[in-house]
Specification:
Strand order of the largest sheet: 1-2-10-7-8-9
Bound molecules: pyridoxal-5'-phosphate
Oligomer: single chain
Number of strands: 10
Structural class: alpha/beta
Number of helices: 11
Largest sheet: 6 strands, mixed
Strand content: 15-25%
Order of helices and strands: EEHEHEHEHHEHEHEHEHHEH
Shape: globular
Radius of gyration: 19 Å
Helix content: 25-40%
C-alpha cells in the first residue's frame, strides 16, 4: 500500500512541506491504524484466533479501527473501554464500534490502569474466553513493523519526517525505516516524559526528537486557537485534520517553520495518521462548552 504525498503551500517559501495522506488508505481503518493492524491480524489468523480484545478511551481511533477491521476480516471484537460512566453514552465512536459488532465492556479508570498486568489479562480470559490481545493504541512489535512501511524509497528525499505521537508505535516504525540522515520529529499529543523510553523499546536508531510544546494541555485538550487553525488549514488545503493528533502536529510544524527551526531549503514530510472519526465526538463536547466547532463539511 503506497499513499500519495501532497504538497502543502503554507505561504512559507524557504522550506517545502508535503503531507503523506495515510488518512486516505481506508474509510474506517485509516492512517496508522491500518499499518498497526496489518501484521497483528495476520498473526491472529495464523494463531487461529477468532476473537480480538483491545483497550481504548471514549473517542479512541484505535477502538473504531479494530471494530471495523474485525468485522471486515471475520473476527469477533471486544473493546475494554476506560470509564464506567460511558456505558450509557451516545458517543459516535462507541456507536460505530457497536455497529461493527464490537462487544464493549466498560471498566473504571482505576481498573483500567491494570490493563498491561498479567493477572488482569488472565481475568479477562476467564470472562471472555481465549482472544488475541492488542494493547491500547495498537502499539506492539508487529504494529511497529507495519508502521515502518509508511515510508517508501522515494521518501528518502526528505530531511524531516514529522508525526503525531500517542503510544509511540508509529514514530518507532518511522525511525526504523528512515535513512540515517533523516530526522524524525514526533509531536506528542499528551503531556509526560515517558515517551522516549517507550520509543526506545522499539526503535533501532536515535535520529529522532520529541517536540513537546504542542500538546495544548494534554491528551484530548484543545483550545479555540487550535480549532481556528484546523478550520483555516482545511479551507486553505482541503485537508481535514483531527483535533487530538494531526491538528496539533501541523500546528506545531507551522509554528516551528515560523520560528525558523528548519534550515532554509529543508524538505519536510508530515504523516497524516488519520483520526478524523474522532471529530464528531469532539464537536459534541465543544457544543456543550459553547466553543466554535471543527468544520466537518466544506
Ligand atoms: C490519528 C492518530 N495519529 C497518531 C497517533 C499516535 O500513534 P502512536 O500511538 O503510535 O504514537 C494515534 C494514536 O494511536 C492516532 O489515532
Amino acid at each position: 500500500m503506497k499513499t500519495d504525498n501532497e504538497l502543502i503551500d503554507f505561504g512559507f517559501h524557504d522550506v517545502t512541506l508535503y503531507m503523506k495522506r495515510e488518512d486516505l488508505i481506508h474509510p474506517f481503518v485509516s492512517g496508522n491504524k491500518y499499518r498497526k493492524l496489518k501484521y497483528n491480524l495476520l498473526q491472529a489468523k495464523a494463531e487461529n484466533h477468532h476473537k480480538i480484545l483491545t483497550f481504548g478511551g471514549a473517542f479512541s481511533n484505535h477502538i473504531a479501527a479494530v471494530a471495523a477491521a474485525g468485522k471486515a476480516h471475520g473476527f469477533e471484537t471486544i473493546g475494554i473501554i476506560r470509564g464506567e460512566e460511558l456505558s450509557q453514552a451516545q458517543n459516535p465512536t462507541l456507536q460505530f464500534a457497536r455497529s461493527c459488532g464490537m462487544q464493549l465492556e466498560f471498566i473504571s479508570r482505576e481498573a483500567y490502569r491494570f490493563k498491561n498486568e498479567l493477572s488482569f489479562i488472565e481475568a479477562l480470559k476467564q470472562q471472555f474466553g481465549t482472544f488475541y490481545l492488542i494493547p491500547e493504541g495498537g502499539t506492539n512489535a508487529l504494529a511497529v513493523k507495519g508502521c515502518a512501511e509508511i515510508l517508501t524509497p522515494e521518501d528518502a528525499q526528505f530531511d524531516y519526517i514529522c508525526c503525531a505521537v500517542g503510544t509511540g508505535g508509529t514514530i518507532s516504525g518511522l525511525i526504523n525505516s528512515a535513512k540515517p540522515q533523516q530526522k524524525i520529529l514526533g509531536f506528542p499529543a499528551l503531556k509526560g516524559d515517558f515517551l522516549t523510553e517507550e520509543i526506545c523499546k522499539f526503535a533501532h536508531n536515535d535520529n529522532f526528537e520529541l517536540i513537546t510544546s504542542y500538546h495544548f494541555g494534554g491528551y484530548g485538550k484543545i483550545n479555540e486557537d487550535l480549532i481556528r487553525f484546523i478550520n483555516a488549514f482545511r479551507k486553505e488545503t482541503n485537508i481535514a485534520l483531527d483535533p487530538v493528533y494531526t491538528g496539533k502536529m501541523v500546528y506545531g510544524i507551522a509554528d516551528l517553520i515560523r520560528q525558523g527551526y528548519f534550515p532554509r531549503g529543508s524538505k519536510i514530510l508530515a504523516i497524516h495518521t488519520g483520526g478524523l472519526q474522532g471529530i464528531a465526538g469532539m464537536n459534541s463536547l465543544l457544543k456543550n462548552k459553547n466553543i466554535p466547532l471543527i468544520d466537518i463539511h466544506d
